C-alpha cells in the first residue's frame, strides 16, 4: 500500500486535525503548498524547510504547513499530530515498487490516535477485481512504532463476502524515493482470512 | 435513505475537507449559509451561485460555500472534494418518498475517498425499532458512479446481533425535489443477511 502525502500526485489528504499556528497568513487553513520543490525526501535526509515559510497558496493537495519541519527520517506527518485525519485512495501493488502491477486500491481513512503519535486508527476497504466487486474491509490500530501490528478484518464483499480474520501491517523502509515527489509511506499488508 | 445537505432541515453535515478558497471573509471556515434560498436544485439545472458571494454567516448546516456552483445534475458535493467528511443522521423510509413511513435512521458518516470523486467510504449504523434497539452497522466503499455497489455488514445489535452479510446501495434518481429545500440524495439500500 502506497500512501503518498503531498507532491503532485498525492493519494492521501490530511483533512482535519492540523492545528493552525505560527503563521498569520495561514488563517486556520489546514493545507499549504510550497512554491517550488522540496519533496521528495531523498536519501533520508530530514527536510530543510526554511524556504517554506513564505508559502501560503492552498491547493489542499500538499503537506500541512505547520509540521513539515518536524518530520523525522522516514516519518509521516500522521505520526506527529494526535487527531489528524487522513483520507486515502492508495494504490495496492504486487511488488514493493510504486509503479509495479496495481492489484487494487485501499480507500478509507486513518487518524493519529495516540498523543505520542505512535499509533494510527485505520479504517479502510481494499478493492480488487476488474469491477472492484471484491472487497475486504479493515479496522484497527496500526502501531507505527512497532515492526508489525495487526488490524481486524471486519467484512467483505464479492468473493470475500463475510470475510473474517486479520491483517498484519508492516511499514517498510523505502530504498527508492524517486518515484514520487510526495512523501511516500510503504505499508506491506498481509491478510489472513479464516475459513468458516 | 434520504441524505439531505443544506436547506432548513439538513440530515447531513459536511464537517471537514472543504477546500478554503476565494473569499477572504471566509478565513478557512468550511461552511457558509446563503441568505435567501437557492436550493433545491430544481429540474437538474446547475445552481447559479453568483448571489452566494456575500454570504458569510456560518451555522454549519448549509452547503459549503466553495463548490455549490460546481454541482452537476443530481450530484452531491461529496463527489467533488476528495477527503470531505459528512456526518449523517438520515431518515430511512419504507417508500422512496421523503415523508413516507419512517422505519429508522442511518447515523454515521461518509467521506469522499477517490481523487475523482467517484467513491465514498461509508461507515454508518441503521437503527430500527421503537427503542432503536435493533441495529445493523455497515462499512465499505460506495461507488457513486456505478449503478449499484456493495458495502459489508460489520455487525449488529438486538435482533440483528452478530449480523453478517452485505448491502447493495443504489443511488436513485429523484423525481420530486420539492419535499426539501436542501439537496437530497436518495439511496436505496437492500440488506442481505447471512444465516449462521
Quick structural gist:
Chain A has 196 residues and is an all-beta fold.
- By DSSP (H or I, 4+ residues per run), the number of helices of chain A equals 0
Major β-sheet of chain A, in short?
9 strands, antiparallel
Q: Give the uncertain stretches of chain A in residue-range form.
A: 19-75
Please state how the strands of the largest beta sheet of chain A are arranged side by side: 1-9-8-7-6-5-4-3-2
What's the end-to-end separation of chain A, in Å?
27 Å
Count of individual beta strands of chain A? 9
Rounded to the nearest angstrom, the radius of gyration of chain A is: 17 Å
Oligomerization category of the chains in this entry? homodimer
Biggest interface pair, counts: A-B, 38 and 35 residues
State the secondary-structure class of chain A.
mainly beta
The proportion of residues forming helix of chain A, as a percent range, comes to under 10%
Order of helices and strands of chain A: EEEEEEEEE
Q: How many domain units of chain A?
A: 1
How much of the sequence lies in strands of chain A comes to 35-45%
Name the average pLDDT of chain A. 73
Q: In words, what does this structure look like?
A:
The structure is a homodimer of 196-residue chains. Chain A has 196 residues and is mainly beta. Chain A has one domain (2-193). In chain A, 0% of the residues lie in helices and 40% in strands. Chain A is built from no helices and nine strands. A nine-stranded antiparallel sheet of chain A has the order 1-9-8-7-6-5-4-3-2, with no helix packed on it. In chain A, a hairpin with a 7-residue loop joins strand 7 (148-157) and strand 8 (165-172). The radius of gyration of chain A is 17 Å and the shape is globular. At the A-B interface, strand 2, strand 3, strand 4, strand 5 and strand 6 of A face strand 5, strand 6 and strand 7 of B.
Amino acid at each position: 500500500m502506497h500512501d503518498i502525502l503531498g507532491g503532485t500526485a498525492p493519494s492521501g489528504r490530511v483533512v482535519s486535525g492540523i492545528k493552525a499556528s505560527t503563521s498569520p497568513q495561514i488563517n486556520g487553513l489546514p493545507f499549504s503548498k510550497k512554491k517550488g520543490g522540496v519533496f521528495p525526501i531523498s536519501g533520508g535526509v530530514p527536510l530543510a524547510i526554511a524556504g517554506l515559510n513564505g508559502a501560503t497558496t492552498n491547493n489542499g493537495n500538499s503537506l500541512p504547513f505547520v509540521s513539515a519541519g518536524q518530520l523525522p527520517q522516514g516519518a509521516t506527518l500522521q505520526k506527529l499530530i494526535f487527531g489528524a485525519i487522513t483520507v486515502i485512495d492508495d494504490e495496492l501493488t504486487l511488488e514493493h515498487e510504486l509503479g509495479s502491477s496495481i492489484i487494487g486500491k485501499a480507500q478509507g481513512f486513518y487518524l493519529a490516535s495516540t498523543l505520542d503519535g505512535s499509533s494510527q486508527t485505520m479504517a479502510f476497504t481494499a478493492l480488487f477485481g476488474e469491477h472492484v466487486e471484491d472487497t475486504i474491509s479493515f479496522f484497527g490500530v496500526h502501531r507505527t512504532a512497532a515492526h508489525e501490528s495487526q488490524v481486524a478484518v471486519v467484512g467483505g464483499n464479492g468473493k470475500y463476502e463475510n470475510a473474517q480474520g486479520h491483517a498484519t501491517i508492516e511499514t517498510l523502509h523505502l530504498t527508492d524515493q524517486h518515484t514520487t515527489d510526495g512523501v511516500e509511506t510503504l505499508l506491506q499488508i498481509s491478510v489472513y482470512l479464516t475459513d468458516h
